[in-house]
Amino acid sequence: MRKSKLFPLAALTATVVAASAVASGTGVAAESGGPTVMAGGQCTGSWVDVHDTVAAKARPDAASPTIFTVFAGETFPCRKLVVGASYKACGYTGMNGWILVQDGIKRHDGYAGWSGYIPSICTNDR
Fold it and tell me: Rounded distance, CA 90 to CA 83, Å?
């Protein structure tokens, strides 16, 4: 498993989830008393499975420009989980967790490697 700056967040997440019930089962307490990340997949490994078609955005904000489309059933390498603007996606409202993924398919004028933010609630860690 890849260890990143978010590795301590994963350990904290396990503690918080075990200690308290969160209404939707998707709340993750951020480090050092920061905002709570409302997320599905958390990029605790190197990959996430996407379970709904979503637009990958330039920034962690639904109003940001779309970089590429991610289709249901695809698996992507993930870089990190971040807190961004709240969104409505995959049947949830008010979520704010975004995962930075890298597109390895040549969808962009024949070039692979574009990165974009997708709603974490639409993913599961692999």
Answer: 17
Please give the structure tokens belonging to residue 99: 């995962």
What distance lies between CA 42 and its chain's CA centroid? 6
Token pair of 54, please?
Answer: 């979503």
Tracing tokens 């974009």 back to the chain, one arrives at: 116
- What digits encode the pLDDT tens for the residues 16-41? 333 333 333 445 544 445 567 777 88
Single-letter residue type at 78 = C
pTM reported for the whole predicted model: 0.70
Strands (E) located in the chain: 27-28, 37-38, 47-50, 54-57, 66-70, 75-89, 92-102, 115-119, 123-125
Q: Based on the number of CB atoms within 10 Å of its own CB, is 15 exposed (0-12), middle (13-18) or buried (19 or more)?
A: exposed
* pLDDT tens by residue, 60-81: 999 999 998 999 999 999 999 9
